Amino acid sequence: MAEAEKELAQVSANTSWVGAEKLHITMRFLGEVSEVLVPQIEEAINLTTQTHQSFPLEVCGLGAFPNSKRARVLWAGLSTGKTEALTLFTTLEKELEKVGFARETRPFSGHITLGRVRYPKHNVELERKLAESADIIFGGEPAERLVLFKSTLKPRGSIYDELYSAKLSLGAQSS
Length: 175
Hints:
The protein has a five-stranded antiparallel beta sheet with strand order 1-4-3-2-5, with no helix packed on it. It has a two-stranded antiparallel ribbon with strand order 6-7. Helix content is 27%, strand content 31%. It is of the alpha+beta class. The mean pLDDT is 92. It has helices at 2-9, 38-49, 82-99, 124-132, and strands at 15-17, 55-65, 73-78, 111-117, 137-143, 145-154, 157-167.
């Protein structure tokens, strides 16, 4: 994916790239959260992981949200593991709703964000590159844990601080 990021950067100069060390699948973005709620979110994560086993993930293809003609977010998609990720998301949503978070209105779309386009406009070269890369297989690894990240937006991109994680099917805290 780092190589794909480099190739996309050649045709999308006004993009803030996530970087290989920060790549992850966002199960649910929570927005601004009071520190008082963090223990309840950790419990929601624990309850979710206790009912789900780890599962294989395979990353395949590149795309954009909302679409390739007006790309705001550039991503790599999931092939293997999409159903399991959706099931995990659904359980997490139910647990977060108990904490007071409204359900997500958009359908879950398992993906790894590679970059955010600062000034979205139609970019024919980017659209072509995404179309050419729709079926590229990047490989995979198992999904083994759910992580609560604190995301801080900076001009050069987000900084992610891991606040908590729990292993799938074990519910064991790992940090």
